[in-house]
């Protein structure tokens, strides 16, 4: 029996910059994907241990059963006194969603890329899409119902964070010529709280799930210790400006998975699997892609390695399947070798090891 952990990252007043391939410095994503989270954790671990130790761990991730699996990070926020976790909307419709619904509500649902946990669970693991959901999406708010889509936070995703631009100037090292540009940051909501340890209370931030296939208290302790170290270093871009620093929710290692999440991740009779991470595999068997619904995204970027001696080297790009993709069989994934040409110090990997949740979908 594997071990699941729910991890919340609290950024407080600290902004973050999460770039995507094809997006300039003037844009930022509001969250970190699983391959970036894995690489950031592994890079932090490499700074704390010797080379043989990190090589041994990477070798374990190339085995059929990796030491742990990560989801991408997703938004959480405090709304009406309770914490709401958002999950990616699966790329297949839930049970109860009819052809007529697709014609009438298709445009509305396309705008809802992320669903609150309770809505996600109700639609894809519970009763499915119901008449009350249909009426609320057609007619507007049903605020009088405590479990209405509105009160559950379905339409409040964009309220969990804000983006702002900061002007910057880069100076050429040789000519001292200046280059003016803007960098966009994402800021999660916070408030002052005299009862908090640092007088700051995070009202929104990022969370992710980590799954240890085999219970291993030593590995779990190491994982969270490295994550704490990474929080002080920062994740994402513009770390030299202090961006991306976070605090891990206290006692995340000791706390059991909340009951609602235990219901979500438990192995039940479901007919499909929904990706909660990026997924890559050297070759996709027909049994995996048959009946699947998925999106692809190219993943690239620059390497960050002490062995690069400060050289700016772009790693190889790789196409990965995105969160929300739905499969009839369980996707597993593997590490992708993205070592750039002429870089021989060590291998560079991106994690395509997947983590998914069981769901029910409408039969086509």
Please explain how this structure is put together.
With 364 residues, the protein is an alpha+beta fold. 22% of the residues lie in helices and 24% in strands. It is built from eight helices and 18 strands. The protein has helices at 34-46, 51-61, 99-110, 117-124, 131-139, 217-233, 259-265, 286-289, and strands at residues 3-10, 69-70, 74-79, 82-88, 114-116, 161-171, 178-188, 190-192, 200-202, 204-212, 247-248, 272-275, 296-299, 318-321, 326-327, 335-337, 349-351, 356-359. The strands form six sheets. Strands 1, 2, 3, 4, 5, 10 and 11 form a seven-stranded antiparallel sheet that branches. It has a three-stranded antiparallel sheet with strand order 15-12-18, with no helix packed on it. Strands 6-7 form a two-stranded antiparallel ribbon. Strand 3 and strand 4 (82-88) form a beta hairpin. Helix 1 (34-46) packs across helix 6. It is globular and about 65 Å long. The model has no long low-confidence stretch (mean pLDDT 88).
């Amino acid at each position: 029996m594997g071990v699941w952990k729910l991890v919340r990252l609290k950024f407080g007043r600290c902004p973050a910059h999460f770039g995507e391939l094809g997006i300039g410095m003037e844009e930022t994503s509001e969250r970190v994907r699983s391959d970036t989270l894995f690489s950031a954790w592994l890079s932090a671990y490499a700074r704390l241990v010797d080379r043989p130790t990190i090589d041994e761990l990477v070798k374990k991730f190339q085995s059929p059963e990796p030491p742990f699996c990560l989801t991408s990070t997703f938004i959480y926020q405090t709304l009406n006194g309770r914490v709401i976790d958002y999950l990616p909307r699966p790329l297949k419709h839930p049970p109860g969603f009819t052809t007529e619904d697709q014609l009438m509500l298709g445009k509305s649902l396309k705008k809802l890329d992320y669903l609150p946990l309770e809505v996600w669970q109700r639609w894809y693991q519970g009763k499915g899409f119901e008449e009350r959901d249909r009426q609320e999406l057609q007619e507007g708010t049903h605020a009088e119902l405590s479990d209405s889509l509105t009160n559950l936070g379905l339409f409040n995703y964009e309220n969990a964070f804000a983006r702002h631009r900061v002007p910057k100037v880069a100076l050429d090292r040789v000519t001292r010529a200046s280059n003016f540009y803007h960098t966009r940051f994402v800021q999660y909501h916070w408030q002052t709280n005299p009862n908090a340890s640092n007088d700051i209370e995070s009202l929104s931030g990022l969370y992710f799930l980590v799954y240890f296939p085999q219970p291993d208290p030593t590995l779990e302790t190491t994982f969270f210790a490295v994550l704490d170290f990474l929080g002080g270093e920062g994740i994402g871009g513009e770390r030299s400006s202090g961006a991306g620093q976070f605090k891990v929710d206290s006692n995340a290692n000791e706390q059991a998975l909340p009951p609602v999440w235990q219901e979500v991740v438990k192995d039940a009779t479901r007919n499909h699997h929904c990706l909660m991470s990026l997924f890559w595999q050297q070759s996709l068997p027909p049994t995996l892609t048959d009946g699947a619904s998925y999106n692809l995204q190219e993943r690239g970027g620059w390497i960050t390695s002490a062995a690069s001696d400060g050289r700016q080297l772009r790693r190889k790009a790789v196409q990965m399947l995105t969160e929300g993709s739905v499969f009839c069989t369980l996707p597993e994934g593997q590490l992708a070798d993205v070592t750039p040409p002429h870089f021989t110090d060590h291998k560079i990997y991106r994690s395509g090891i997947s983590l998914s949740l069981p769901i029910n979908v409408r039969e086509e």
